[in-house]
Amino acid sequence: MNTLKFKGRDELIRVNPNDVVCFRADGNYSTMVLCSRQEQLLSMNLSKLQSTLDEQLGYDSAVFERIGRDLILRKSYIFAIHILQQKITLIAPNGNKFVEEVSRDAIKKLKERQESDTSKVLTLAQLREIATGKIYRLNIGHNRFGRKANTNQCENSIDNGDSRISRNHFSIQVQFNEVGEMNYTLTDSNSANGTYINDTLIEKEKLVYLKFGCKVKAGNTEFIFEKTDMDKTEII
C-alpha cells in the first residue's frame, strides 16, 4: 500500500496507512490518530482528507470508512460497537485501544453494515476469461469455480464447453490479513486435470497467493487475475 503524504504550507507528513487508526474532524482541520497513540493535526477538513485518501491509495482506500460527519476509521481495527453509549472501540495490531464517539444515526448504520453478509461483499478484484472476456467478480470469503452442471454448487459456473474443467475445479479465498489488507489465495479443489498459475501446475489443495496480472488456467480455459478497474491487464 502506498505511503500517505499530507502537504501543508510549511511541512510534509509521510505515514504508512497501516499505522493510521482513524481521522477525526477538527473544524476546518483533521486530526490523524496513529497506532502509537501519536496524534497529528492536518490542515484539511475531513471531506478533503477523504479525497486525498482516494487519490493516493486508489482502491486501497476502501480499508478506510467515513462514519458520519466527524470520523474516518480503519475498518479492520473495529473491535466493538456500542450503540447506547454511541462509541466505537478500535484495537490496533500493537494492542492499543481507542474509543471514538459517534452520532447515534451513524453508529446504527455502521452496525448494520458490519452485520451484513460479508460473503456477498464484492472486493476490488476479478478473474477475466481471456478468450471470451467474461468477468467473474470476487467476493469476500470463498469463490468456487467449476464447469456448469445441474448438480454444480459452485458460485461461479464456467459455461464455455470446456469439458476438461471439473464441476468443482478451484477456489479463490479473499480475506483481510492482520493489518487490514486483502489477501487473495487460490486452491485447486482436487480437480481431474489440475490448475495452473503462470503455466505452473500447483499442488492439490495447497494455498497459493495470487498477484495481480497472473494467469490462471483450468482445463483449456485461461483467466487473468486483475483489479476491477482494469479493462485489460498484462500477463506477468
N-to-C CA distance: 20 Å
Approximate helicity band: 10-25%
The number of helices is 2
Order of strands, main sheet, comes to 12-11-21-20-17-18
Total number of β-strand segments?
21
Ranges where pLDDT stays below 50 over 5 or more residues in a row are: 117-121
Can you describe this structure?
With 236 residues, the chain is mostly beta strands. Helix content is 10%, strand content 44%. The chain contains two helices and 21 strands. It has helices spanning 46-57, 104-115; strands at 4-7, 12-15, 20-26, 29-34, 39-42, 64-67, 71-74, 78-82, 87-91, 97-101, 122-129, 135-139, 141-147, 156-158, 170-176, 182-188, 195-197, 200-201, 208-209, 215-218, 221-227. It has a six-stranded antiparallel sheet with strand order 12-11-21-20-17-18, with no helix packed on it. Strands 5-4-3-7-6 form a five-stranded antiparallel sheet, sandwiched between helices. A five-stranded mixed sheet has the order 14-13-15-16-19, with no helix packed on it. A hairpin with a 5-residue loop joins strand 11 and strand 12. Residues 117-121 have low confidence and may be disordered.
